[in-house]
Specification:
Length: about 500
């Protein structure tokens, strides 16, 4: 079968005349598939009207709403490349993404000025109001780009991850099948929609399956307990969702009686959380593993044993190997090595960064994830660490290098180290350890003000500490493991 626009034809087109609910909103209203697709068709007309052509990038930094999601559908239908941005990003961060991607249009909540056409979502909705409610889908091939998602790097600048129609569609197809999603499913959607988890794993899967979503503006424990869980059949979340639910005495087995599946990902789920969750609800959380660059790679089985502390098996048609980090040869089961992946899910490369792309692929096409793991005797993948300096806090990635670069530039700072330490709510939280220039004092308030201007709030270290010197090994490298040990109990109630 040939498609004119594989992603649109599979995810959206089948629902054009479907009047059943697609999005259930917390105020009790709902939006049907048909309403949603009419709105997105109007947006698509608007995009064409202002001169956007297939392949142009459309950036959106907007609060989560049905309209915000319709921007994604409109981009797919009009052949545009959707570039969703975290609402926490500062104006400085935004400028970089706009310049790097060459976006033609930026859509925001409030008026803004950047080096491209800027519109508020409100003005776009108004301007689109008079356009027809159907739109002739722009033809795209499976290798054309559908989305560009930025991910910060361990060194230097954030990189645009180029995701093709095939990357997204193949993964949605694999997940619908593997997790047995159908049009009967009602998914609790409390994740943000500017990352792979909330946008592609959740929305693409539900669109393909034809089910509906309880579409919450953000994670809110009361809405989840009062409306979400009693009405839904499944939930996708980061581990913090699960620890917060367990910390709430209202969360019970009875509340979950209609739920068939709880899925966790984006950060490690502690075995303890897995066990406590089963004890409380009788459900074993299904943990899976993915990345922005690859979408989902592995998953615990739907029917088989979901093993705590593991991320399961490779998804169908996706190859995973645990390899020697130097030679990239596969290691025997049980040995720890570099996790590498190959398949239709793997992205096309980093936007306009061919060297960076080349560095992260092996000659035989396997992508080097930067995660370290082992495959156990039963074939389950365990993630045991990271070969990259990365903190995952509440499911958001924080790259220490990015924060250290800002900190090192501040008056009287000789050097800094940003580390992740255990945090009961967020899994890990960032703290910064600073060393002053000789005989100088660091003005911590001034540093906080600078961080506010330059970096999204979630990236800010929860604490700034000053010390006389940083521990170093004989090669002069900062020993972050020693710092992590020293401060490991900072957020844990003893
Ligand atoms: C909010 N804050 C955070 C985080 N979230 N700080 C560190 N880490 C965080 N994750 C800060 C805010 O800036 C604010 O700071 C304060 O905490 C409270 O903010 P609020 O919005 O009220 O927080 P919350 O609602 O409690 O949010 C926590 C959350 C949220 C629900 C865990 O972070 C979340 O939805 N995380 C999911 C992230 C996600 O979707 N990741 C998937 C990435 P202040 O009060 O000081 O101003 S995709 C991915 O990783 C791959 C592909 C995969 O495998 O899925
Ligand atoms: P991102 O760059 O936001 O796509 O984050 C991807 C990273 O999140 C992966 O490389 C892993 O380090 C981590 N990750 C995702 N899912 C899991 C999981 N289930 N367990 C442990 N780490 C995970």
């Amino acid at each position: 079968m040939t498609f004119s626009n594989p992603l649109y034809d599979a995810l959206f087109a089948p629902h054009i005349d479907q009047c059943t609910p697609f999005l259930h909103l917390p105020d009790g209203n709902s939006l049907s598939h048909k309403d949603f697709l009419e709105l997105s068709a109007q947006f698509a007309h608007y995009f064409c009207e202002i001169g956007l052509v297939a392949g142009d990038r459309v950036a959106a930094q907007v609060t989560k709403s049905p309209e915000a999601l319709a921007l994604y559908a409109a981009c797919v239908q009009a052949g545009l490349v959707f570039l969703p941005l975290n609402t926490a990003y500062t104006s400085d961060e935004l400028s970089y993404f706009i310049a790097d991607s060459g976006a033609k249009l930026l859509i925001t909540d409030h008026e803004s000025q950047h080096d491209c056409r800027c519109e508020t979502l409100e003005s776009l909705i108004q301007a689109s109001n008079d356009y027809p409610i159907s739109f002739e889908t722009v033809a795209r091939s499976e290798d054309d780009l559908a989305a560009l998602l930025y991910t910060s790097g361990t060194t230097g600048r954030a990189k645009g991850v180029m995701l093709s129609q095939k990357n997204l569609l193949s993964n949605a197809q694999a997940l619908v099948k593997y997790w047995q999603f159908t049009e009967q499913d009602v998914l609790i959607h409390a994740l943000p929609i500017f990352h792979t988890h909330g946008l592609f794993v959740a929305c693409n899967v539900m669109l393909l399956a034809g089910g509906s979503m309880i579409f919450m503006p953000k994670f809110d424990i009361d809405t989840l307990i009062n409306i979400g869980i009693p009405e839904a059949t499944c939930m996708m979340g980061v581990p913090t969702f699960y620890t917060r639910l367990l910390a709430d005495s209202r969360f019970s087995k009875e509340l979950c009686q209609h739920i068939r599946l709880f899925i966790s990902g984006s950060a490690p789920l502690l075995s303890q959380t897995h066990t406590e969750f089963e004890q409380r609800t009788g459900h074993r959380i299904l943990e899976r593993y993915g990345m922005t660059e690859t979408s989902m790679n592995t998953s615990n089985p739907y029917d088989g044993e979901r093993r705590a502390g593991t991320v399961g098996f490779p998804l169908p048609d996706i190859e995973i190997r645990v390899a020697d980090p130097e030679t990239h040869a596969s290691l025997p089961n049980g040995e720890i090595g570099s996790i590498e992946v190959r398949g239709d899910n793997v992205f096309q490369g980093y936007w306009q960064m061919p060297e960076k792309t080349a560095e992260e692929f092996c000659a035989d096409g396997f992508f080097i994830t930067g995660d370290l793991g082992l495959i156990d005797e039963r074939g389950y993948l365990h993630i045991v660490g990271r070969n990259k300096d990365l903190i995952i806090s509440g499911g958001y990635n924080i790259y220490p290098k990015e924060i250290e670069t800002v900190l090192d530039d501040q008056p009287n700072v000789a050097e800094s180290a940003v580390i992740g330490i255990p945090h009961p709510d967020l899994g890990e939280a960032a703290i910064a350890v600073l060393v002053a220039q000789p005989n100088e004092t660091i003005d911590l308030e001034a540093i906080t003000a600078t961080l506010n201007k330059s970096l999204a709030r979630y990236k800010h270290p929860r604490t700034l500490l000053t010390v006389a010197s940083l521990p170093r090994n004989s090669m002069g490298k900062v020993q972050k493991n020693l710092l992590r040990q020293e401060y490991q109990d900072m957020f844990i109630e003893l």
